[in-house]
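Why do we care about 3D structure at all? Because function follows from shape, and shape follows, mostly, from sequence. That is the central idea of this module. The next example makes it concrete: a single protein chain, its amino acid sequence, and then its structure expressed as tokens.
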Amino acid sequence: MSLDAIRDKLEAILRKSPKSEAELVYVMVEMRKFLEREGQIKETQFSTLKFFCDWVLHPVLEYSGAKNVLKRLDPEIGVSGPIDPHNVKPSSELFQMMSLGPLLAEIKSFCVENNLPKHWTSDPIAWRECMRIYGHVVLDCPLAINRKDAPSRYIKRLTLRNAVDSQEHTDKRSFSWDWCFELSDGNSFVLHHEFAYPAPSYDNSHPTPTEFGI
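And the structure:
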């Protein structure tokens, strides 16, 4: 399949918010295919996007992409001792990973560079739906790593678990998940992450996305 054909497929589906796991996985597969067709330079440029694409395709991820992502978190884990969830700053690598910030940034860059619709990344409700669905896709699919040259304390395994959806009000939706970290020194901890956002069918005359913490 040519790059133009892949781009046409992506253009059609990226115009609307994702509706299902199958739809999101399809987009991730096509983006990964697009990067592979463009060669190593593009795979390196969008290495984080490729990593997240790989995660939806493999039950256990142990490849270089997973290692590079976990290495970015090592300094924060290795020097801080026990992690207090209340002290994880939004600017930290750890928080960005849990909120899928790096994925948002690279999908946005990918769409800009390839003149594709930016609805998924520019509309805050659409992006929350992407995050929610993505979490269910990779649920209980661990990022496992074994590095002989790593520092004495590092992340050995990272797993997303306990994804929960709720809709307490017709205009408001929320979801949460637990990031479970297993360290090389035998310690482990769990960080809970929760999002609230307007339901995809909300009325624009009602509260704005800002009022929902977006």
